[in-house]
């Protein structure tokens, strides 16, 4: 299955708690941290909820 590299580029400070929880669920908790995740529909939905806080690219 394909993998995505996600990097947190925005702070969750002042955002709804749901968005902060989504970042934690994706494995992100600090600015400029990256993580590789499987490309599944559930992950895509989580990324859509915090698209303004993350950068998404294809993993190598």
UniProtKB/TrEMBL annotation:
Q: Which SUPFAM superfamilies match?
A: Ribosomal protein L30p/L7e
Pfam (any one): Ribosomal_L30
InterPro entries associated with the record: Ribo_uL30_ferredoxin-like_sf, Ribosomal_uL30_bac-type, Ribosomal_uL30_ferredoxin-like
Q: Does the keyword Ribosomal protein apply?
A: yes
One annotated Gene Ontology cellular component of this protein: ribosome
Kindly state the subunit structure of this protein.
Part of the 50S ribosomal subunit.
The name on file for this protein is Large ribosomal subunit protein uL30
Can you name the source organism? Dongia soli
